[in-house]
From TrEMBL:
This is Partial AB-hydrolase lipase domain-containing protein. Residues 1-28 form the signal peptide. It comes from Apolygus lucorum. Gene3D superfamilies: alpha/beta hydrolase. The lineage of its organism: Eukaryota, Metazoa, Ecdysozoa, Arthropoda, Hexapoda. One of its GO terms (biological process) is lipid catabolic process. Residues 48-104 form the Partial AB-hydrolase lipase domain. GO terms for molecular function: hydrolase activity.
Length: 358
């Protein structure tokens, strides 16, 4: 096994090296397939981007509430100077990190690379709580205070930090924003809580957003329902024991997931995912899942469940007493979606149980 691993590593490095030189000529590997790193570390995103023939840059951005976030940038090989195209920010979904935009098997299915090829200056933001964005100016990682956030804080603090940094760096007045799943929820929070940012986003492209849902929780597939239903109780237990980071040893989890997926084989794994989610959608490959996982606070899960629950798309429900202190009302206030003036394009599918066209 050790020999296998190192020989595949060697092949990968070889491919990386020829990738940079020969890929354009189509000799090492056809441009049709994405080249995946075989390691799961903090620098996977760099390996993924550089391995497929693009340049990589990253920056640390500080939010108003002191979080240190990692912001990635794809550098197109033909645009390395100061004019890199119109800026476009991609933000991923729950428990994911920026790799999620770059892990499809076909190179042309990776929106990060597609936008870069189309002439955009592509930025990928790692929101707070993901593997590369766990720093804080005052707090250390194991302090539970660091994990005391929901998607509200991500929308209200992380996005402005990303956007202001990009606009300042590129000398542009505005940018295009695209998101998948919970990433779109962050944007809706931002647009409704800090409407001045609507001017800084020329347009938003939503893929499978989680904002409102016309299905009751009970109508969801029973296993998903069970997961969503047990999550708040689980969160409660974790929080009481001072552990609100969701799966702290994510690096190992990813390695195990990838290993299990490879051992049981893609078909068995696919069957499992289909039974689990009951939607018959295209099931992503082993490395997609393993590479995309980025981590999150368990509070975020609690807040997501509110969307499917009676509370609707509202601010975080801290419970009666805390709500009264924080919001002045027993129930948390709804996000005012009318305040969002940025034009939005929605992409969703009819069989999606988690996204509603409303
Ligand atoms: C991002 O930048 C920091 C500081 O320059 C560096 O230490 C880190 O390794 C970079 N991240 C990646 C994924 O390359
Ligand atoms: C960080 O700590 C300093 C000094 O204790 C304090 O003044 C500041 O408000 C803190 N900043 C944040 C964002 O917590
Ligand atoms: C870069 O520009 C050259 C010359 O215009 C072109 O042949 C090549 O395909 C471009 N590379 C990429 C990755 O688009
Ligand atoms: C904008 O960039 C300049 C130069 O890079 C820097 O001095 C300044 O602090 C930045 N402003 C903000 C708001 O980040």
């Amino acid at each position: 096994m050790a020999i296998n691993m190192s020989s595949s590593n060697f092949l990968f490095v070889l491919c990386l090296v020829c990738g940079a030189i020969i890929i354009p000529a189509g000799l090492c590997q056809s441009r049709g397939k994405t080249i995946f790193p075989r390691t799961f570390g903090l620098n996977t995103i760099r390996l993924l981007i550089e391995g497929n023939g693009y340049g990589y840059e990253n920056y640390t951005v500080t939010t108003e509430d002191g979080y240190l976030l990692n912001l990635n940038r794809i550098v197109h090989p033909n645009r390395t100077g100061s004019h890199r195209g119109y800026p476009l920010l991609l933000v991923n979904g729950y428990f994911m990190q920026s790799e999620a935009w770059l892990v499809q098997q076909e190179l042309d299915s990776n929106l990060g690379f597609v936008f870069a090829d189309k002439g955009y200056d592509v930025w990928l933001g790692d929101q707070r709580g993901t593997e590369r964005s766990k720093g804080h100016i005052n707090k250390t990682i194991d302090e539970s205070k660091l994990w005391d956030f929901t998607y509200h804080e991500t929308g209200v603090y992380d996005f402005p930090a990303f956007i202001d940094f990009i606009l300042n760096k590129t000398n542009h007045e505005d940018l295009i924003f695209s998101c998948m799943s919970l990433g779109c929820t962050f944007h809706s929070v931002l647009g409704s809580k800090r409407p001045s940012y609507n001017q800084k986003i020329r347009a938003a492209i939503y893929f499978v957003p989680i904002i409102s849902n016309n299905r009751q929780l009970e109508e969801l597939n029973s296993l998903v329902y069970l997961m969503l239903r047990t999550a708040p109780a689980l969160t409660e237990i974790l929080e009481k024991s001072g552990l609100i980071e969701w799966h702290p040893n994510l690096g190992n989890l990813k390695k195990e997931l990838y290993h299990v997926c490879r051992v049981i084989g893609y078909n068995l794994y696919r069957l499992f995912v289909k039974i689990m989610f009951d939607t018959g959608f295209h099931v992503p490959h082993c490395n997609v899942v393993a590479l995309s996982l980025g981590g999150a606070s368990s509070r975020v899960a609690k807040h997501i469940i509110q969307v499917f629950d009676s509370a609707g798309f509202s601010e975080f429900d801290y419970g009666r007493e805390e709500n009264l202190k924080k919001y002045g009302t027993v129930l948390p206030p709804l996000y005012d979606l009318k305040k969002i003036t940025t034009p939005i394009a929605f992409y969703y599918s009819d069989i999606d149980q988690y996204t509603s066209p409303r």
